[in-house]
Amino acid sequence: MRVLITGVAGFIGFHTANLLLKMGYKVYGLDSLNTYYSVAIKKKRIHNLKNKNFFFKKCNLQNEKIIYNFIKQKKINIIIHLAAQAGVRHSLKKPMDYVTNNISSTTNLLEACRKYKKIKHFY
Question: Is a pLDDT exceeding 90 seen at residue 90?
Fold first, then answer.
């Protein structure tokens, strides 16, 4: 199985990817590596996941066409969507960041899945 994990450099994404790799899955990780949390920690997590069954692409989910092409090219079967703009305080200062990063990105991902039609599970 080929699993796409969005937000793979985050805490939950990293540990999910690590577990799936130990189980023998091919894991494709997407992350924007934004600066809300330490980019150095995110890069270290990506480095720690590197093996023959892990593939990483720095990417935000703002462009449905890029997402669709990635899913199709890599023949993804399962998607675990963990990407999101984090932080409650930031949401009070810049609520539109959350609309763009969380709602629009999820919609773009779902639309790409609808067009690809070969996704068995979306979590």
Answer: no
